[in-house]
Amino acid sequence: MEVICEEIGRNYHTINSSPYQIEQISDIEYSIYANQNGTWTVEIFPANNLESKNTQVFPSEEEANFWIKKNADIIFRKSLNEDILRSFIQSIIIMSQQY
C-alpha cells in the first residue's frame, strides 16, 4: 500500500490569499459612533449608492463591529457578483453583434 504525502487545498497561484479587512474595501463607507446612553450607532452603505444607507443601534461596540463586518462582506460579495454578471452579459452582447 502506497502512502500519499501531499497537502490538499493549498493554492500557490493566488497572489494575496490572506483575508481582506473592511478597511481595505474602497467600495464601502461606514461610520460607528457612541451614543450618550451607552449604545453604539452604525451606518454602512456602498460608496456609489448613498441612498441605500443602513443604520442600526447596538448595545455594545463589539456587536456593532461584528455587524459592520458581516454587512460589508454581503455588500462586497454582491458587488463582485454584479461585476461578473455584467461582464458576462457584455460578452454575450458583443458576440451576438459579431454574427
Structure description:
The protein has 99 residues and is α+β, with helices and mostly antiparallel strands. The chain has a domain at 34-98. It has one helix and three strands. It has a three-stranded antiparallel beta sheet with strand order 1-2-3, with helices on one face. The protein is flat, with a radius of gyration of 21 Å.
What's the short version?
This protein has 99 residues and is of the alpha+beta class. The protein has one helix and three strands, in the order βββα.
Number of β-strand runs: 3
* Percentage of residues in DSSP E strands: 15-25%
Radius of gyration: 21 Å
User: Assembly state here?
Assistant: single chain
Percent of residues in helices = 25-40%
What is the ordering of alpha helices and beta strands? EEEH
**How many helices does DSSP assign?**
1
> Reading side by side through the largest sheet, how are the strands ordered?
1-2-3
Distance between the termini: 57 Å
Class derived from helix and strand content: alpha+beta
Broad shape: flat
Largest sheet: 3 strands, antiparallel
Poorly predicted residue ranges: none
Arithmetic mean of pLDDT: 77
